[in-house]
Amino acid sequence: DAMVIQNPRYQVTQFGKPVTLSCSQTLNHNVMYWYQQKSSQAPKLLFHYYDKDFNNEADTPDNFQSRRPNTSFCFLDIRSPGLGDAAMYLCATSLYGGYEQYFGPGTRLTVT
Amino acid sequence: DAKTTQPPSMDCAEGRAANLPCNHSTISGNEYVYWYRQIHSQGPQYIIHGLKNNETNEMASLIITEDRKSSTLILPHATLRDTAVYYCIVRVAGVGSSNTGKLIFGQGTTLQVKP
Fold this sequence. Notes:
The complex is a heterodimer of chains A (112) and B (115).
Chain A: E1 4-7, E2 10-13, E3 19-25, E4 31-37, E5 44-50, E6 53-56, E7 64-67, E8 73-78, E9 87-94, E10 102-103, E11 107-111
Parallel strand pairs in A: 2-11
Antiparallel strand pairs in A: 1-3, 3-8, 4-5, 4-9, 5-6, 7-8, 9-10, 9-11
Chain B: E1 9-13, E2 18-23, E3 31-38, E4 45-50, E5 55-56, E6 61-64, E7 70-75, E8 84-92, E9 109-114
Parallel strand pairs in B: 1-9
Antiparallel strand pairs in B: 2-7, 3-4, 3-8, 5-6, 6-7, 8-9
């Protein structure tokens, strides 16, 4: 089945130690999104790629970066994780910007 | 900020219809109403969307009022697996380079389906 895959499902990192989260998709969708969801809160968009074009949200901290080397893969890099970055990170895809989004299962990040 | 208002929580008996309301009084003419749900510890799942006509699919029905200022998501026969947070979102749909497809989630309605 076509799907959105996130690895790992659980990630533990140390304060200040760079970490990379991975997302892949078999849907061949043009758009890939990264959302952050903190405990008991709604998901919040960090940034997205429309094909190779990167679009950052205005309030996304510089500590968060992203790479999309090809259509199928997208990475979320957190350069120096702080305790406040502990959250569920959700990857989503859509065929075009205005179409429905398909979400992966998320990666739960713990910062110690 | 989210452009919708939903009750924070609702209960429903298993096998009964669950009717989840949403207010979106400032909706624009080109904005659609989308519904997603998020089962605990999973990613959100698309349910249904509509512009002004009522819509139905295998998961749910969407009833939009004539003035488009509110809508209701109907799960016709709720099961325990329908227990989740349900998000009502309004946004512009359709293809276009200026349409990022951004979803702005509000706090949603936590639906608890009880045996």
